[in-house]
Every structure is written in structure tokens, then in C-alpha cells.
Amino acid sequence: MHASLPLHAACAPWLKQPVALGLSGGRDSVALLRALCMGGVRVFACHVHHGIRGEEADADAAFCAELCAGFGVPCAVYRADVPALAAAAGESLETAARRERRRLLAEHARRCGCGVVALAHHADDQAETVLFHLARGSAGLRGMLPVSEAEGLVWLRPLLDTRRAQITAWLQELGQAWREDASNALADVTRNALRLRVLPELEAALGREVAPVLCRSARLQGEVALALHAALEALPTRDPQGRLYLPFLEGKPQALRKAVVHDFLQRAGVGDLSERAVLGVCELLEPGARRSCCNLPGGLRACRRHKRLVVEPQRPLAGGEED
Amino acid sequence: MHASLPLHAACAPWLKQPVALGLSGGRDSVALLRALCMGGVRVFACHVHHGIRGEEADADAAFCAELCAGFGVPCAVYRADVPALAAAAGESLETAARRERRRLLAEHARRCGCGVVALAHHADDQAETVLFHLARGSAGLRGMLPVSEAEGLVWLRPLLDTRRAQITAWLQELGQAWREDASNALADVTRNALRLRVLPELEAALGREVAPVLCRSARLQGEVALALHAALEALPTRDPQGRLYLPFLEGKPQALRKAVVHDFLQRAGVGDLSERAVLGVCELLEPGARRSCCNLPGGLRACRRHKRLVVEPQRPLAGGEED
Fold this sequence. Notes:
The structure is a homodimer of 323-residue chains.
Chain A: E1 19-22, H1 27-38, E2 43-49, H2 54-70, E3 75-79, H3 82-89, H4 93-111, E4 116-118, H5 123-136, E5 147-150, E6 153-156, H6 164-174, H7 180-184, H8 189-206, H9 211-234, E7 244-245, H10 254-267, H11 275-284, E8 293-296, E9 300-305, E10 308-313
Parallel strand pairs in A: 1-2, 1-4, 2-3, 4-6
Antiparallel strand pairs in A: 5-6, 7-10, 8-9, 9-10
């Protein structure tokens, strides 16, 4: 009798429902399949054959089907023509594969009546993601969430706190095989470099494991962002008509003014907000500001008017002028 | 006629006063000396001879004295016995040297009547610092500040937005020499590994410069933390006696509850706050919590009492029992 892998506590309530599982046949998804089965979860496995890597990919699909059969888990195999999709979209194979895999998995979940989908990302994937976002210029530390909602489905990552080495050791202990190639078949070049070169150098420099630290920092950071959002929600920043009430901002520190303006613009439906755009709006609110309006992305503009800030179309429509 | 290096805008107002400058003779501090002189800043240079690296260190000190003389800048040379200090404190040479350098610089500033001190950290140092804190487990992205206050002095880092390569190119253009060894004489092993191995691997993986991105992320992150702090300040979380007013927390998201409790405990003087300690206090506030008190670091405890949370000594003192 083997102990199961620990699954993320935030996922537990969702695992009472039937779950659609993305199963590549690689180590991580095989481990998640086994752990879900041990936990008595009703699993509907979904394997995507990418239409590349010929016989290897055929063998991955056969492996998944056989593995699932052994545990009484239905396994659907979908065939994608990733090279054609990538060519059509002008994307890399990796990007096209990821998108198509996700699309087919969501479709599969709906077809099986599952409202919940499970993905096998683990703590080392999370550390890579955090570094990736950070070095790409995300404003903060941003990782994947153990539970998120998209496309009308709940997406779970029950292994998000589990280290890769722990997964490997557990499968070896179980005597459970996996398809080595399937794991890395379509990993992105950047991701591979982060995993194989940057993270090991970082661990060597610090003389300690960094993946748990990166994961924890990203989680705490996410909580700070949520706390700020909720705090702004609880402050009297808007008037009953939902316009930003400027006297609230008087005497407040610049960092809070920026956050309030950013939050207000976002709620007003301004997309693609740069720091520059937010600072432009903040300038309108300075005492003695020369301008009272400034343009925003998406054909919108912000205007200061009677101690309020409003967001409106750049050129207000005259009656019947345009539809 | 050469253009000066751009100095951080936040430092500008402070540079009207006389400034004490830490001058190692290495590239960065030499560049800062030249830039400050070009900007007409009154500089009092301070060179610390660490009592290691024998003739090399003597030559660094002589170089600094001569350089300063050429620009009419007074230059004081302090001699520290870093090996003895390190041995006495049980620290590494690098750590002891950094502390002693900083102590002597502060003392020098006071002696010269300077309220402002300038340090030559640049954008690449900042990127290292951000990675260093991140991988060591700081909760967020934390870097150095362009302007900060400590020990009754204002500490400036006017080159914090300037890249190392930009500094090198500028000095070469000026035909200004520097002491190569002085730059790295006592750099920490971890810092060197971050600079020489981790950051280059990260840049190679991403195919772009990451130092500016890390610096910007740390800055934005710092602003989010400041905004949250100011937002909590503006919320009615405390009663007139300064106790945490619990009805405020009802129905608020957990991330905000955690942030409010953390902020409250910090204001109440609880040091060394772990996430675990904050969560322990949050549990006291759950409906139906079994305990109403829990211990905190520093001999303090948090107690829920009449819809308030208070911080008090773990064992309230009876009159005359202890002093």
C-alpha cells in the first residue's frame, strides 16, 4: 500500500466532481492520473496526438490508452495537426500545440460533462513560470494558480506545491513507468533554458533550493495584489455614479494615487494599461494641471470634471452620426 | 565638453547640499565622483582602506587621493582592520568590510557636516539585489531605493537607473581611469555568481536584457506595497484607542484580512513577523474560533476581546512584580 502524492489543499473541494485530465503520458500527468485515482476521483483522461514525432507520438497515445484501461479510466485520444495550425497562425509549434491542447481539453471536459479540468504543473514548473514572467517584464511576481476559472471551467493544478524530484521518486516507488519523451516533446526553448541552465545556476549561486522560495514569493505577491484590490474596493474612491471622486485623493501618497487611478481605469474597461498612461491621468489631477483630458488606449479618454474623473469615448458620438 | 551621466531624478533635490561620497577607486564610484563634480555638487570623498590586499590597497588609496586633488575635492582615507573585525564578529571579510565601510562613511558625513551620503550602486547591482532577495526568500521583489533614510542621514544612489556598460563607456569617453581591482576587491561570492553566471544565463534564455526589467519590476512592486500600506491607513480598521476593530474585517476577502492583521501587528511593534504568526492571529478572528489569544514573537500576544484585537505582553505584569 503506497501513500498518495499530496494534492494542493485548494483543489480538494473540486475533486469531488468528475475531472477532465490532460494526459501526455509524461511523468507529471501520469503521476497526477495515479494520484487522482488513488484519491477516488472520477477521471476522464484526454490525450492529444500532435501530428508530429510520428511513431513516438503513436506510442505515447498507445501508452496512455493502456495505462488508463488498467485503472478503469476512460481515455480519449484527439488528433491535432499542429504543423498546419502553427503555419496558419504564424506561430511556433510549441505555442500552437499548447493552445490546441488546451482547446481540445476544454472541449473534452464539456463533452464528458466535467466542469473541472486538472493540469499536471508542479512546483518546478511554477518556479520557471515566475522567473519567465519576471524576466519578461511582468510588473510583479506572477505564477500559476492552484485553482482558476476560464472558459466556464475550473482549472486545477493539484501538484503545484510538489517538487519534480518528489514526483519522480513517487512514481519509481510505485514502479509506474512514463514516456520520457512525451514530457519534453514540445517544451518551449525558453522554458527549457530556464529549467536546464538558469535555475541550476541560481541554486548553485545561493547554495539552496530556490523553487520553493520562488513559488512562495509569487503566492505572497499575488495575495498583496488581491489585498490592494480589496482595500481599494472598500475605500470611498467613487461617487454614487461610479465616477472617481477626486477629493479622496488629496493628500494621499503618490503610490496610492497611482493605484487608485489604475484600479479605476481598469474597472472602467480601459484595456492594455501602461504605467505611462496611468501617470498621464495622474497628471490631470495635480493642482494647477493645464490639461483636463488625456487619451487612453481603445479610443477612450479620461477627463477631470467637477472634482470627478470620468472615462468616455475620445470623440463623443453626436446623435445619429455613427452607430 | 562632455555630457554628464544622467543622475536619478529623485536624488536631484538632495544634491544641492554637500554630499559625502563613498569612493573605492573602482569604476562606479569614480564615475559618480566625476558626475557629481560636473553637476557642481560639493563633494566630501571618503575612502576606506580595508587593511587587506597590501600594496594594491595602498595604491587604491593613493589613486583616490590624487583623483580628488585634481578636482579640488577633499578626500579622507580611513584605515580599517577588516580581518580583525571579521574575526571578532565571526563574519566573512565581505560582510565585515561592508558594515565597517558604511559605518565610517556615516561618521565621515557627520564630521564634514553632510546630511546626505551618495553611493555608486547602478542598475546592474540593482538587478543582482532583486534576484538575491528573491531567491533568498523575501516575500516580494525588493531592491535598493534611489533615496532612503537611515542613521539620521539621507542615502542617495544617483546611478541606480544607469547600466554598468553605460558607466564604462562614459568613463572611457572621458579618458578617466579607475582601479579595476578596487571594484571587485570585496564583492561577495554570491553576488559575483549572480553577476557572472546567473544574469548572463537569464539574458541568454530570454534573448533580451533583463536588468532593466528586474529594476522596473522591483520599483512597481515597491509601489504596490506602499499603496497597500497607505490604503490600509485610510481604512477604518482601528478604533479610537488604536485597537483593531474586528467588524471591519467581516465579509472581507482573506487576502485583505491577512494584510490588515499584518499591518496592525507591525504597527503594534511586533517584530520578526512570519506568515505563520499572521495566520495564527487570523484564526482567532474566525467565527467560532476556540482560542481567543495566541503568542507572538518578542514576548507579546494577540487577544480578541469585545470585537477588538489587542496586542499585550504575554504575562501581564502585576503591580510591583517585575520592573
